[in-house]
């Protein structure tokens, strides 16, 4: 009867196929259904086992999504053996819905929601692993593009494309699997409504009891509400971000030295070449971790002695960076602006303002030529104006023709020699103020350059054999101990490059301030490591270090364990005050 009815309707519609065509289309479908029924009838045990397997996998997938922690250290079996409150509530709501369509819609939405929840938790895990903080829904999406660019520089374009495609496919499969799993479990629960209702009441009672009594197994509570935790955490982050935006804009507009006349800014450094140099990922762990420290502290001691023989002296302390594991620009801007820049929104706000940076101070006086040596910059950098840099040399303007060392576009030794050739070694009518950002100690710390004779640097092609003989990032990245050792080598190389440059080209009028921008990633710095970084001021003129004699810093290039620790955003005002600047507040 159904076939006859459809055939008659088709025959009456001149815009559709004929009745005979409709019968021809229906036949294969009926044949397929018949074959499926035959297979089921012929192998009932296998079909039953397959159904049970699919049901078990669906339940496991949904529970895993509900219970997945958002911190790397918490991803273990104990956290997946808990009773999620959301599962109990979800089943209760499903059983209460009146019709099949509403239940299907709920199952689909549940699957999509679980997919989104899983992605957020995985992003939290990734950000905690590399940046020591959770993922911010408002601010951090653009960092995913930076991560892809980093992977391209590290692993190559083909591997990056393959990884990107793999991630997209994996996400689509994740969402599809969770939707199908939710649909399957929904159908099962409805077919066994009585048992499901009893089970839900029992599970709800157990959850309330475990939660009330605080019952735990191996230190992990049996009652779980991970979805509520994730939603609450992300909501708080979003609210805090939105509140912080307005508050920080007001803070950035108030500047203790913003209205200081040019003549009253850093009068005690007039005539000096002042160089503010950042060493990538140079953190406290480099001086204290037992696997890393011997090479780094040995280098610092050796280079302190060499500088002293050349007439230079140094004092060193600790600063607490606003960032950790990455996002170097947050550390740079915190140090130079005197403001705590710990997220991308703050960075955008301050760089769009006229807040006075430490580097812009020298430009404002009119007594210095201000330059930037930024080999890590490979695209437009409008922030140069905010930092007060009249002349910027990025990756494409330093004359380098050698190979890249993973993410780093050129070895630090070459970048410093290029600075000497292009700026420091040339005659100018003013002293120099330079911001120099060294990149050889950027992760993945493979391959690492080695020092060559300064006279042989040329256009950098001398590094081709060194880069080819270096370690493969694919072998270093998965190995935590090897990453730590290679990280230590890279820091020793960067410090050696910088201090040899100073020894070779510095004079009575050279003042070098150098520091780390942040600690390396937790896999290298260790779980719960501080955010402290070393900072040193080096000069040949004794009057320069006399100005900071009351800071309590250690002599030499290595701060002591008990050397004072300051927040990085306090350095600007301390430095300006030490070298004779007079505060005149702007913005009030």
Automatic annotation (TrEMBL):
Comp. bias regions, Acidic residues: 14-26
Transmembrane intervals: 49-68, 80-97, 104-123, 162-183
Region span, Disordered: 1-31
Keywords: Membrane, Transmembrane, Transmembrane helix
ATP-binding is among the record's keywords: no
This protein's name: CDP-alcohol phosphatidyltransferase
Annotated organism of origin: Streptomyces flavalbus
